[in-house]
Amino acid sequence: MATSELDVPRFGQRHRRRGPISLPTGRTAPLAGAARPPALSPLLPARPMFQTFDETALTNAVAPRVGRLRQALAKLKVDAFLVPRGDRHKGEYVPAHDERLKWLTAFSGSAGLAVVAPQRAVLFVDGRYTVQARQQTDTSLFEIEQVPAAKTSDWLLDALGTGQTVGFDPWLHSIDEVERLEAALKPSGIRLKPLARNPMDKIWGADQPPPPAAPVVAHPLSRAGRSAQEKIADVQAALAKGGEDAIVLTLTDSIAWLFNIRGSDIPHTPAVLAFAIVPAEGRASLFVERDRLSETHASQLEDIADLVPPEALTEQIDALKAARKRVRLNPATAAYWFSRRLGEKSVSRGPDPCQRAKAIKNAAEIKGARSAHHRDAVAVCRFLAWFDQEAPSGRLDEIAAARQLEAFRAETGKLKEISFDTIAGSGPNGAIVHYRVNTESNRRIGRGELFLVDSGAQYADGTTDVTRTIAIGRPKPEMRTHYTLVLKGHIAIATAVFPEGTRGVELDPLARQALWRHGLDYDHGTGHGVGSYLSVHEGPQSISRRGEAVLEAGMIISNEPGFYLEGAYGIRIENLVLVNPPQKPEGGDRAMLSFETLTLAPFDRRLIDTKLLTGEEKAWVDAYHKRVMAEVGPELDAADRRWLEGATKRL
Amino acid sequence: MATSELDVPRFGQRHRRRGPISLPTGRTAPLAGAARPPALSPLLPARPMFQTFDETALTNAVAPRVGRLRQALAKLKVDAFLVPRGDRHKGEYVPAHDERLKWLTAFSGSAGLAVVAPQRAVLFVDGRYTVQARQQTDTSLFEIEQVPAAKTSDWLLDALGTGQTVGFDPWLHSIDEVERLEAALKPSGIRLKPLARNPMDKIWGADQPPPPAAPVVAHPLSRAGRSAQEKIADVQAALAKGGEDAIVLTLTDSIAWLFNIRGSDIPHTPAVLAFAIVPAEGRASLFVERDRLSETHASQLEDIADLVPPEALTEQIDALKAARKRVRLNPATAAYWFSRRLGEKSVSRGPDPCQRAKAIKNAAEIKGARSAHHRDAVAVCRFLAWFDQEAPSGRLDEIAAARQLEAFRAETGKLKEISFDTIAGSGPNGAIVHYRVNTESNRRIGRGELFLVDSGAQYADGTTDVTRTIAIGRPKPEMRTHYTLVLKGHIAIATAVFPEGTRGVELDPLARQALWRHGLDYDHGTGHGVGSYLSVHEGPQSISRRGEAVLEAGMIISNEPGFYLEGAYGIRIENLVLVNPPQKPEGGDRAMLSFETLTLAPFDRRLIDTKLLTGEEKAWVDAYHKRVMAEVGPELDAADRRWLEGATKRL
Lengths: 651, 651
Known about the structure:
Two copies of one chain form a homodimer. By secondary structure, chain A is an alpha+beta fold. The first copy, chain A, is built from 20 helices and 28 strands. In chain A, the strands form eight sheets. A six-stranded mixed β-sheet of chain A has the order 4-3-2-1-5-6, sandwiched between helices. In chain A, strands 12-11-10-8-13-14 form a six-stranded mixed β-sheet, with helices on both faces. In chain A, helix 15 (about 365-390) crosses helix 16.
């Protein structure tokens, strides 16, 4: 998938934020020109696939809403109010209930922050979204500012004066975020004021979608590989080591991993929007409505933890404070509400130990990942065969292609969800790294163009994420040069050998060397961690300039260098790789780590300029293609198998 | 040179510390078996070249000295005392006056810390020195502990109890160092106490060498490229930007650079042991005895700065405090004395702006570097020709080879000093990364062995540092394999192309890839910054796992991957490289940085296994050799030129 977000500045707390979620309205027109359209599988969740816009109506709603917010602020006696895009868990996806920023401003980007003051208002977005923000919001009301150059604190210092107050919802900002802003405003005598209730919710009123409360299901031991009991014991050992009495977990993928549960509260990531408290000794508390679980599942969970109604969270936090317990919070991700409620004396700042533990997959999870990738490979290869046949007609468009790919995945009979909104960019749309097709941007895929498709699936045994770039008709020589340079970077990562202790930042340049020599580069990271039937973006591992986490055996990470020629085409080649256990190469004196490529789908041979590849690189492509044919071929029908045979021929 | 120190843990404050300095006693026997020994040039500074040991006498002196220190501590009412290796500037080299650790413990390593308590004493050293420390000191008195596993604070917590006090010399520890130790001891009620006078100096008494006070000379504008006035104005602009009133400079290479002065207070680095204060407005103060400068030079300097007697430093610091000035100190390198004297309210913590500015060489410095490298190349090539003729006789030893190399450098007529103690390791000695030959370790260079020689020169126009590994007789196949893998890493750096903003950490793996694939690696950084007729180790730039500084056009850095087979041989190939200005490669859309190799000396063709090189790598070696022949050949006599012709033939 697009890792552009990895290196793109944003407001966020976690390095895994994604493009706009689907709007809860509209449906696309019937499939345009797609041959052989298999019926969408009944397993496919009922949700609108592609965003449609009625820009004008949304923009017109901005002024009255801002007006009502200003009235509310006057009553609350605050001189400005912060409206971030985010929920109480600061995760990548935000439920409709928490889309306050979009409701207020009509801006639908995946990251942003509005500040509303009595006379002025501003919308901060990053470089991906400045154009979109101007189009969507009412620019007679909102100034548009681009982060990180523009800073919230500078705007507030300019708009407000000594003694004035900035209101905020303490549930929607991390501890770090609030403290940084507080420090910047303090010298000028501007105060931050946490509000007990978010005024947006009052003015949104009955139209605000309810908080999600989807069923919570068990992630069976056969897939999880380790029991919740064992995992909780490890967290408790970490707390004991740190001399802490408890930890508050706020990240939903940590909680899903720890308790071996899954849900569907938010799109694409099967996490459960819940909090948890794990004491160093005694039973953990999972804050979730008991009726979201089956009775059997609830009783099983109650063997190891208390299921506590979410309303009782405040009470338990207060009890920890009263008992003078030392409670670990991760200031980068935990809501400010927690540190304020606990008080400085009770808070111990530290990492969430689940994040690293979750990233290192165990044998059951690795087995699941291989099996999920095998299954996904069949769908992807069917799609590529289909696309190769249909695209030259000139009747295919991006939405049709994306729907078809999802349909093939649904036909596996195992698809739970796609793991993110498919990126299907033809021609110049491929060069927009964060591109998500919508009914307005949708374009026909033309001959002589490149088509970039980045997609993934959630299966119960694993999460996938794969990008292929395909030529329609005869590619231009420079397309082949650029594709081959990207492929060289991809191969450099796939074949990397490195000692234990190596961090992602140290491998990142290997993926770029070939491009750098030609004065080219891409402005996103090379790889992000991927969960096990969890988030398609997970930390702490990454291959990027910021990849400070050590790569450890069992981690799954994407390998996705790219190249983007603005206004012309985008190229990205992405496989997921698994870090192998250390092994001593023959003749060596040290054990080394390496990668196993999990994803199986051919590279477009028409785009490979073999003159630019070394003998070793060619041999790697041939061996990979041979493996794709051997593993996927037998699962295809005769026509698709013939296609795959051609697509995996020796270079 | 050996960058092992780059990545080896140490006590230190700066990442440029070096092997043992020469002992101020002894001289080696006459040249052993060296043919054609040119007389040492009269320009060569008179100093003992190689360490000789009378281990027993030194070790026997330890007990009485520790006894006297313990008596002194009892009188001072402190329960332990810290004896670091270092002076008030925390630089790489330490003048004899400050070799308190060696005088007390007989340990001559380049990094270490002793702690003496009434009943116990400990010597902390890093992994390079555990064996040497045991051999040199009196182990019936000193426990030997290895950092970073062992911590000073843990030892003190074990040896002392609540209410006890640890004395230290506030001039010999950085602010960071003292604060970290203080924080670790505080919870146990152990206090740190800065002592007004170092008790070591009293017991050392009349035998303690006086502080150095060598002449201070001008570094002419033609070589410096920028006037001291301009540089001071830049520092003042940085202070104004930071809202600070002054900066105290404590790093000797910063001061030498800023005032365009050079000296010979310490071996190998032509810096001046001095302090300076630069106010945001007004005249800078350089604390140095006026009579160390010529009258002309002193008056010239007084046009732009005050020459203040060192005794007046305290007074000026007190005046800054009294005037409530904000004074910048670098807590990582400035002595604790300064922050204590100024008081917390007056101290502003920040970097020394001279360090980065000094690292980016201007046109005059670059011209000087090229010229110094050309001159040095002639000496090195003469040495290599000589060595190739003499070594097979089996009569050469390491000291003879090192002396001969220095003699060729002296014959240039321009040698000021060698830039560090030559590393000349044959056979197994080559595998000791921090090896410095002494009369005890000196061994004859045998046939079938490898000889590693790492050396450099200080010329008025530039500093050099070069390593070659040479085969004597026919090398074993595995030597050729290992050499070629190291060469591949060297070429990968030499030919690297990278965008602006790239940090050294991102290039480091390029030098290791070939070794990693064979399960091999080296435990030191790949490159360190090099000064302009200043320290052969300078920051902030480095190519290493810790290379967080961005590489900028004009920086000079070493390129020195290696491989070490314990007990058998060491391989290192080192050239200095200069970061070129950004240039846009043809067909590219971004400007890229690259390196110009400054060092000119052939690689040993007998050690290159061409089967392991790609076509591009072979072409690079051939082009480099052609350049060596073209630039150095005309400067050699006929015999040496013939040798160089053979040594630079196409692969």
